[in-house]
Amino acid sequence: MSATTALHLAAEIGGPPQYDARHYVELARLAERGALDFVTLGDSFARPGLDALAVLSRVAPATRRIGLVPTVTTTHTEPFHVSSAVATLDWVSRGRAGWNAEVSTTEAEARLFGRRSAAPAAELWREAGETADVSARLWDSWEDDAEIRDVATGRFIDRDKLHHVDFEGATFTVRGPAIVPRPPQGHPVTVIDGTGGPSQEAAARHADVVLVRATAPEQAAGIRADVRRRAAAYGRHPDSLRVLVALTVDLGDAETAPEPGLESGPPLAAGGSYYRGGPVDLAELIARWHRAGAVDGFHLTPITPERDLERIVNGTVALLQHRSLFRTFYPGGTLREHLGLARPANRYALAEGRA
Predict the structure, then answer these.
(1) Nearest CA-CA partner of 274 in 245, 317, 310
(2) DSSP labels for 24-40?
(3) What tens digit of pLDDT does each residue of 83-114 get?
(4) CB-neighbour burial class of residue 168 (10 A; exposed 0-12, middle 13-18, buried 19+)
(5) Which end of the chain is flanked by fewer CB atoms within 10 Å, N or C?
């Protein structure tokens, strides 16, 4: 990766549960003022709080450019509903949606639904990959111009441009077509944590953005190279995905030196890398890793969102912008445009020579 490759930045806006949507709107607007690519909102069946996808559907009309990426757990949920909900978010945000695919591995969470027992992570990530696969097929099941809306003839849809996906996976089947027209982005952006373990293959095969964890630029570069190699093995062009280092940040004391190499921070539940220090030193770290060609960017999770996100945007990001290392405005309107990713062609239109 050359030093001139665009730097991508994203931030998590979750934290202790909040039940007022204005909290999330304000954080997303703050991130948007910094021209961040997207914000994520974490979610799981194990935590109390509002549904992340529904919250970001509320945030969408209150923002203009920032990408919106909720965590969506594929275990215990219907793939058809997942696809429809994410497509809906893309429509209400006018092309700014993504989804962070996750799985549920515990028996306690399985009992909330009562449909099946907990399963090994490897099995669940295979299922998550199939959910990503069928979702993309469902998003393509309407061609872009399938809607006619011809009042004179009474024709709303060109049925020749609707397609059954007829997908059969290990744990589900989906016939289709979708009930939501093809999203503005074609395919909303798929994000998967692919640091290691059973999620790696799903990330390499299906993700547009892969989150990884590393404590040194050399380690990050090695992980990035491995992700790109795996993607190529699945017939994907390595440049069709972005690899972002997931970094938990604590900017509580601007005068505190960063943890050397990130190794000595407190242990995190997700096994993630940790930074404690000031906004200026964080900017230096981001610039150094990116210039070394180690990563495409960073996904930052503030320890205290209200405090640390403000310091990220007005301190770290402002400094990177001042040094011409990060953009000062959005050159496009969709999340794919922010990330420099092409809008996918419709597979069914391609097969019939209409794309």
Answers:
(1) 245
(2) HHHHHHHHHHTT-SEEE
(3) 999 999 999 999 999 999 999 999 999 999 99
(4) exposed
(5) C
